[in-house]
Design brief:
This protein has 368 residues and is mainly alpha-helical. The protein has one domain: A middle domain of Talin 1 (Up-down Bundle). It is 70% helix and 3% strand. It contains 12 helices and 6 strands. A two-stranded antiparallel ribbon has the order 1-6. A two-stranded antiparallel sheet has the order 2-5. A hairpin with a 3-residue loop joins strand 3 and strand 4. Helix 2 packs across helix 3, helix 4 runs antiparallel to helix 9 and helix 6 packs antiparallel against helix 7. It is globular, with a radius of gyration of 20 Å. It comes from Streptomyces haneummycinicus. GO terms for molecular function: potassium:proton antiporter activity; sodium:proton antiporter activity. Keywords: Membrane, Transmembrane, Transmembrane helix. It is found in: Membrane. It is a multi-pass membrane protein.
Length: 368
Amino acid sequence: MTARLRALAARWTTLVPVFAVVLLVLTWGRDLPGWAVAIATLVLAGAVLAAVHHAEVVAHRVGEPFGSLVLAVAVTVIEVALIVTLMIDGGDKSATLARDTVFAAVMITVNGILGLSLLTGSLRHGTAVFNSEGTGAALATVATLATLSLVLPTFTTSKPGPEFSTVQLTFAAVSSLILYALFVATQTVGHRDYFLPIVETERGTPLRRGGARRGALHPHRHDQPRTAGSGPDRSGGAGQGVSPTIESGVDAAGLPHSVVGVIIALLVLLPETIAAVRASRRNQVQTSMNLALGSAMASIGLTIPAVALASLWLPGPLVLGLSNTHMVLLALTMVVGALTVVPGRATPLQGGVHLVLLAAYLELALNP
């Protein structure tokens, strides 16, 4: 009996996501009582932790930067599913949901995950070291995608309000896909070594290879996972079941409706946050940077095209333009991010600055 219990516990990463799918079928389209919401939340948390485990198994098998890419795409699929689920029944209140969620994802990844990783890595190892070439390219792509998709709609005049016309939306969606595909090709084929962790000497300075580039690179190493099996990320199952509850809970608390997007982004980015912090604790800060910026890029580059396609049959407008306050926060985030990335090294100060920017965004989300 004890052996069976141990075997069952070892397989929790497979059983919990399956249970989440079953729970989704049983609760789909229903108003859930409080106790059911609590159960769904616990199952969702377990499924998220299972997603982290599966992602680390995949990363262990395929190496960096492919492992980070797999996790980024997986959580973006969950994000899109949650957005579309809420937009179907949300009416006019959901017109800004895609914008709010994508912008929240950018702020959480570029300031939250990145800042927490730099803070953890630098406190544990003295200085957080990463490859400025690959990280800088990723940040530049995120800045371009965010400006094209979230800033320009505020200033266009083809449609009233911060919306794209059909032609403009199509251009933004296609451009997002092209840039994301180009970055993935660069990350995995053209310049893969730009996205691999750096080896430091005992003095704490990066080794040099042939004098051409800073940083001697080594294949990404993961701690051996407890179980050898891997599977797809199913953590979005229970999330779809509780997504209407998220919306009603925000309304009941009297919070701005944009907080729904913040909650969705926090929910789906939890696996990457855990994985990034674990990597930084192992002194693999480049992996953490790949996760943070790769997630931001996937959130924009894949969510905007998906929502643009869904808007063809979904009711109501699709508002993408940011407010003045959020544009200031986005601009400050990108400037600070560039100054963080250029040296290729970071102290706890840089991590703290990014975390303060995240705190400012969350404060303004709750009290606009």
